Amino acid sequence: MCHARGKKSQTVVGDRVLWMPSQDEGTIEQVLERRNLLYRQDEIRTKSFAANLDLVLILIAAEPEFSESQLTRALIAAAAQDIAVLIVLNKSDLEPHFSRAWERLAPYRAMGYTVLASALRPKSQPGNAPSGGPADGWSDLLDALAQKTTLVLGPSGAGKSTLINRLVPGAQALTQEISSALNSGKHTTTSTTHYWTDAARKTALIDSPGFQEFGLQHIDPMRLASLMPDLCAWVDQCKFYNCSHLHEPGCGVITRVAQRDSSESAASISPHRYRIYQELFAELSQQRY
Questions:
Q1: Residue 12's closest CA among 192, 133, 137?
Q2: Strand ranges, E, within the chain
Q3: Helix, strand, or coil (residue 15)
Q4: Domain 37-207 adopts which CATH fold?
Q5: Considering only CA atoms, which of 286, 277, 219, 193 is closest in space to residue 41?
Q6: Strand partners, 150
Q7: Which part of the chain is CATH 1.10.40.50?
């Protein structure tokens, strides 16, 4: 076990550090430069998830219904740090909920995000998605995670615990052992835990606590459109270089929203996605000006 010098630790899960032995424990002497840091920020606090990530896996479920606003916020936070994203829609065996949820994700597939369908179950409950639907996605998921450090994000009830336990045998026992070593008594939902999924320690999975809110106060509102692929594709057609994409004449984004057809096209901007942009812009602007 290693502890940082001083009363407040600046380290997060995924950090690379230099440390020195100190009796039966260790002391963190230096945190090495990070490639990235995924975090959220609201008016009160900043919550860091993890550092030095190769991938963010956003796990959502067909039931309970996922929040598209929260999904968008997580995607924006990852894009701001230039971290690749994988969206996994769990519970593909639940119809008609799955079909509705899969359709809601059509704009994200059109934007170029990788979206996998899966029916995650404990090993004691084998089975795949119903025939005729998308593949179960387990082998594709394993391929996507191989030799990467991946942070798993998602709301409660999406299946994160099932995913972790499928990929890391004995994960529950391991978290209890860590908690005991930390003298915390129990593993709580406020902790973030790093696991190796293979003996060679080439593939890592980082489990994060579920969240109800995902603040983006660290994002400049004028940068929002550049972090949303469907809007970003049209900003170069705006008449003004500092266009907010809310009311300006000659705005390429507004024009495309008005002209959007019903096809699942990469050139489409979903009206619902545009409303999320408007709400986020207003939220972030209110805190700054």
A1: 192
A2: 2-4, 17-22, 25-31, 37-41, 46-51, 55-61, 84-90, 114-117, 149-153, 193-196, 204-207
A3: coil
A4: Rossmann fold (3.40.50)
A5: 219
A6: 55, 205
A7: 221-288
Return the CATH class of domain 221-288.
mainly alpha
Tens-digit pLDDT string for the chain (289 aa): 888 887 677 899 999 999 999 888 899 999 999 999 999 998 888 889 999 999 999 999 999 899 999 999 999 999 999 999 999 999 999 999 999 999 999 999 999 999 999 988 755 454 444 333 344 678 899 999 999 999 999 888 888 888 988 888 777 645 455 444 544 333 334 578 999 999 899 999 999 887 778 899 999 999 999 999 999 999 999 999 999 999 999 999 999 997 765 444 556 788 899 999 999 999 999 855 5
Domain with CATH 3.40.50.300 in the chain: 37-207
230: its two tokens:
């469907």
How far apart, in whole angstroms, are the C-alpha atoms of residue 229 and residue 85?
13
DSSP string, 73-108: HHHHHHHHTT-EEEEEEE-TTSTTHHHHHHHHTHHH
Cβ within 8 Å of residue 169, ≥6 positions away: none
